[in-house]
Amino acid sequence: QVQLVESGGGLVEPGGSLRLSCLASGFSFSNMTMTWHRQSPGRERQLVALISPSGAVTRYPDSVKDRFTVSRDNTKNTMYLQIDNLRSEDTAVYFCKASALGAWGQGTQVTVSS
User: What does the pLDDT look like over 21-43, one tens digit per residue?
Assistant: First the structure.
């Protein structure tokens, strides 16, 4: 079955960096557009990155595009999200999604605090 497992979250000080991973299985990962989303308490889930099946095309909302970098390794069925210069407002649970399947991972918590 379709499975998405996020990892790499944690507690980081402002200005720090993290790399999140999303390991996919149960579908043809290399043919799938993938997305990263985040959700903080009391707020709607927000799209923060999109990557095309080959990785050649990426998209970000203006609010994160200078600090977030999405990438993928189709040989490892894994997508990544590099987050630099972390801010307190980046605190959220981060989810990956297999776009066309509507399948979500369980999320990984990112907390930015000094």
Answer: 999 999 999 999 999 999 998 99
